[in-house]
Design brief:
CATH architecture of the largest domain: 3-Layer(aba) Sandwich
CATH topology of the largest domain: D-Maltodextrin-Binding Protein, domain 2
CATH class of the largest domain: Alpha Beta
Largest sheet: 9 strands, mixed
Oligomer: single chain
Strand content: 15-25%
Number of strands: 9
Distance between the termini: 75 Å
Shape: globular
Structural class: alpha/beta
Length: about 325
Amino acid sequence: MFGRCLAAAAAALLLLATAAHAQDTSKLDFPKRPITMIVPFTAGGTSDVIARAVADQMGTALGQTIIIENVGGAGGSTALTRAARAEPDGYTIAIGNAGTNAATYTIYPKLSFTPDSFAPIAVVAKTFGIVALRKDFPAKDLKEFIDYAKKNPGKVNLGHAGVGSSNYLICKSFVHAAGIDVQLVGYRGAALALTDAIGSQIDGVCDAAASVSQAIDDKLVKAVVVGSTVRLASLPDLPTGLAEFEAQGWNGLFAPKGTPPDIIAKLNAAARTAVASEAVKKRFVELSTVAPDADELTPEVLQQLVTRDVAKYRALLADDKK
């Protein structure tokens, strides 16, 4: 009898403790002021456009403004250095991608941060890489472009958002898959590269659909291939057509290492609310971007993507380090 009473009392205490913890988390006094979201590139690029759409809805969910801070330079590593050194209190977060948070460790081996410098919050978008050419480029489709590049080795130039950016990785993946020799031209942001392609200052760009789809629709540039196994609903005429060129990317949110789990959980919940909102869904359709599935929105999934892509791009970029 006494043992049963003890067991019942222990169970009751456990329920009370669990309920108290849930209540504490739900009433967590965060955020009390605006949050800064660092974007590792200049305004107008893929990460920036996605960040602004998500930040607006996250801010609504959290009841605070999320301020976008664009920090360009060194393929995103300048911004990530700042993010890694920020106070781990949830008031400074960063949006990153496979370039800034995976490939960068091969490209810039002497960084002041490592993958362990960040606490993953959530994947917020899945993106698709596209190669697009200036509208007056002599080749009209993928086959003609590859033939032209092979007949003119080293003479074609493709712009990207800087060494280490996701656009740089799109370029590297495409060139490797196509077996061609072209010049890769780095800019401080994707928007600058696209502007030069539109103005025929360069031959083309490697970019995400989020950034370049409107220019394609407006016939300011002509796309030749998307790095996906399926065609994009927003660009149904754009072929896949190149084996080994799969450039599906991601954008994820990170906080400095040491950010309390309860704050990470609250930021994750806000990110989930944001990507499920009609405003973000509508914007993502316009950007040829896909929201993650519900089971892809955990911090653990983002950590797995980082670990996978660190190894993936170490192999892809091995020749660059020789």
